[in-house]
Amino acid sequence: MRFNYSPISISLKRRLLMATTPTSPTPNSSPISNLIDSNSSFGGSQRLRILAQQLRLYKSPPPHTENDEIDEQKREESGGKVVSQLGFAQSATPIADPERFTCKKAAVLVCLFEDNVGDLRVILTKRSTRLSSHSGEVALPGGKADEGDANDEETATREANEEIGLDPSLVNIVTVLEPFLSKHLMKVVPVIGILSDQQAFTPMPNPAEVEEIFDAPLEMFLKDENRTSEEREWLGDKYLIHFFDYKAENKEFVIWGLTAGILIRAASVVYGRPPSFVEQTPKFWVPKYVKKGTTMR
Is 49 a domain residue? Predict the structure, then answer.
């Protein structure tokens, strides 16, 4: 399979080139040039090494645990607030009654690589039409956590290996984003990794799960081009579902919902700027007691 390339991302190249130029440090930050380790075993271009160092500094909001001391009145007022959707980040506010809300966990791999002109691209899949859920939809490699998985990184890379034949040893995990909730109220953790040696990866789709493997420019998810949206409502709150139309090798794909939401967030973190469109991601409220099989509509 041949990866698809797009015009060079001038903004990314300019930003990374500037990062190699010594500058005066700003409060609470240090020059990126100080982060470069010339003896690092991480392969790839200097730009990828700098990007990896930048992303390792990202810290997602810490989740609440049962051991957190939360005022009961605030817990009651929260009403079990979570951000849920088809692609919005999960709220840090805990579920009011965790015993009655069992959220299954999954992880996806946002695998980035640099094309031959220096543009960042992300690996995507089109799910098999034979699958019982989300059949034929565009997705990131990943899936449900197994009991034997040590962490989210292992879940994401293991699933990517099973789905598209991506050897975990080829991927350098650089950061983990805050969890998202799927429309089936499953907690999905995006894991960002960098594929420094694109030529070492030979895509091998698992026909039981994946129909096609392709890639798209990451910066696309910050632009208003080829994007549409639909307004939805959940318990009185309105929000937007984003759809990105993309063509690769004369094939047309629609990247939407949870996958689009994760990629908007990942692109914002990588490029250090918000999207050029309104995300409209209000906070949602779910009932304290969620019945099995509850989904977003």
Answer: no
Torsion of CA 172, 9, 271, 183, to 10 degrees: -80
Within a domain: 140: yes
Query: Counting beta carbons within 10 angstroms of the beta carbon of residue 154, is it exposed (0 to 12), middle (13 to 18) or buried (19 or more)?
Result: middle
**Threshold 0.70, pTM exceeds:** yes
Residues of the chain with pLDDT under 50: 1-40, 64-86, 91-96, 99, 284-289, 296-297
Sign (positive or negative) of CA dihedral 155, 282, 68, 177? positive
Report the pLDDT value the prediction gives residue 180, as an integer from 0 to 100: 87
Q: Using CA atoms, how far apart are residues 117 and 99, in angstroms rounded to an integer?
A: 51
* The predicted structure's pLDDT at residue 12: 43
Pinpoint the alpha helices (H) of 10-105.
10-19, 46-56, 72-78
What local confidence, expressed as pLDDT, does residue 104 receive? 81
Q: Are 290 and 185 in contact (CB under 8 A)?
A: yes
Partners of 89 in beta bridges: 180
Render pLDDT for 32-81 as a digit per residue (tens, 0 to 9). 223 333 334 566 788 899 999 999 999 875 554 444 434 434 434 444 44
**In whole angstroms, what is the distance from residue 219 CA to residue 210 CA?**
24
Q: Which domain holds residue 114?
A: 105-271
State the alpha helices, DSSP H only, in 20-164: 46-56, 72-78, 152-164
CATH at residue 111: 3.90.79.10
**How many angstroms separate the Cα of 182 from the Cα of each of 67, 72, 88, 102, 218?**
26, 28, 8, 14, 21
Q: Number of structural domains, the chain? A: 1
Does residue 243 lie within any of the structural domains?
A: yes
Question: Is 154 inside any structural domain?
Answer: yes
